[in-house]
Design brief:
By secondary structure, the protein is of the alpha/beta class. It contains ten helices and eight strands. Helix 9 (225-236) packs across helix 10 (240-255). The structure holds zinc ion. Zinc ion is lined by residues 6, 8, 36, 96, 206.
Length: 257
């Protein structure tokens, strides 16, 4: 039984058929999924889903770089709202939080401040942290170094992150891989999949984004985690059942499930 450690079930793209999506996932062997809050309003919607699907949907809450950008004027108040939310039932992690340099958001120093404030919250609440990073791995590693050893994961691990894989593992973090590993021409990423220690490996879909082969271009669903698991197993020269067992145990331990 697999765990989808990162999906966005609060997306409007699931509004019409979420019951069916979750049933499909269960039929495919995905027993539990963590829906990610990218801001407090989204986290509240995620917590409502955790209540509606007890034991199947869990949730995380954080202020992602897009929310930090939008709410920067009132960031202190937003942080207070987030703190209230972290104690909610079914909330298993703080996230997603991190650095996003691909889009024109806050300057790096301001993004770093927003991230650091939330790392402090995760520490206070004893929660693992789910990290997002695009084009800023050197800065992220520098920020995280003063918090090591860390409990958490770098989600949507990608080719631009591959060179940093060993450094993240060295800080104590897990690496979470999604449908990008099924895309062609991603040899650096596949190298990272092949070499990450088994006890640091996690699987995610990032639904509704990044549908794996053979579903590319469609709305991604948690049920397609099986395609990602099979690809990881192939790259590691392992069996899907072995990868499923290992990654499920890792997720249970990391998120206290
Ligand atoms: Zn996400």
């Amino acid at each position: 039984v697999l765990i989808d450690t990162h999906c966005h079930l609060t997306s409007p793209r699931f509004a019409g058929d979420l019951d069916a999506v979750i049933d499909h996932a269960a039929t495919a062997g995905i027993g539990r999924m963590i829906t990610i809050g990218t801001g407090v309003d989204d986290a509240e919607a995620g917590a409502a889903l955790a209540t509606r699907y007890p034991g199947r949907v869990l949730c995380a809450a954080g202020l992602d770089p897009f929310t930090c950008h939008e709410r920067h004027a009132g960031f202190a108040a937003e942080l207070d709202r987030l703190a209230l939310h972290l104690g909610a039932r079914g909330c298993v992690a703080l996230g997603e939080v991190g650095l996003e340099y691909h889009h024109p958001l806050l300057p790096p120093a301001a993004q770093a401040e927003c991230l650091t404030a939330q790392l402090a919250l995760a520490h206070d609440f004893g929660l693992p942290v789910i990290l997002h990073c695009r084009d800023g791995h050197a800065d992220l590693l520098r920020i995280l170094a003063s918090w090591a050893p860390l409990r958490g994961c770098v989600h949507s691990f990608s080719a631009d992150a591959a060179a940093a894989a060993a450094a993240y593992v060295g800080l104590g973090l897990h690496l979470a891989f999604n449908g990008m590993i099924t895309f062609p021409r991603t040899s650096a990423l596949q190298e990272a999949v092949a070499t990450v220690p088994a006890d640091r490996l996690l699987l995610e879909t990032d639904s509704p984004y990044l549908a794996p082969v053979p579903h590319r271009g469609r709305r991604c669903e948690p049920g397609w985690l099986v395609d990602i698991c099979r690809t990881v197993a192939g790259i590691r020269g392992s069996e899907p059942a072995v990868v499923a067992a290992v990654t499920t145990r890792n997720a249970e331990e990391l998120f206290g499930l």
